[in-house]
Design goal:
This protein is mainly alpha-helical. The protein has one domain: Winged helix-like DNA-binding domain superfamily/Winged helix DNA-binding domain (Arc Repressor Mutant, subunit A, Orthogonal Bundle), CATH 1.10.10.10. It is built from seven helices and three strands. It has a three-stranded antiparallel β-sheet with strand order 1-3-2. Helix 3 packs across helix 6. The radius of gyration is 21 Å and the shape is globular.
């Protein structure tokens, strides 16, 4: 009897079980996309609402036009961001979060808030570590 025959019919096969720790899992690939610096910051900015490209670029201080464009394409492919061309003269492009993108960005917002609130602790830890390193 094969494993499939002996397995409970209500359980999904192993190939359809999402596991972020598995090398080829889609969730792992998207986790990698979402946790990149520019993707995380773009998602956080878009949590505030729809942005035109240049406004988003100004909001995400330090990102280059090329990097933001690549980041938004990746997030669009992952189903987290939608790109809409507004049919006006001149045409403009707007970006906003999908429902899934909003859920992901909300979780990132909680992490960002925690890190912002902990900034004094983080600075102290970094300073202490840097002092230890320079003395060694």
């Amino acid at each position: 009897m094969s494993m499939q025959e002996g397995a409970d019919a209500s359980e999904p096969s192993a190939e359809f079980v999402a596991d972020v720790f598995a090398r080829n899992c889609t969730s792992r690939a998207v986790f990698d996309d979402v946790t990149s610096k520019w993707s995380s910051l773009a998602l956080l900015a878009l949590l505030d609402g729809t942005y035109r490209f240049n406004a988003l670029r100004r909001r995400v201080d330090g990102v280059s036009e090329k990097m933001l464009s690549q980041t938004l394409r990746t997030l669009e492919r992952d189903g987290l961001v939608v790109r809409e061309v507004v049919d006006v003269i001149p045409a403009r492009v707007e970006y906003e979060l999908t429902a899934l993108g909003s859920r992901v960005a909300a979780r990132l917002r909680a992490l960002a808030d925690l890190l912002q609130d902990a900034a004094p602790e983080l600075d102290a830890a970094r300073t202490a570590r840097d002092e230890c390193t320079t003395r060694a």
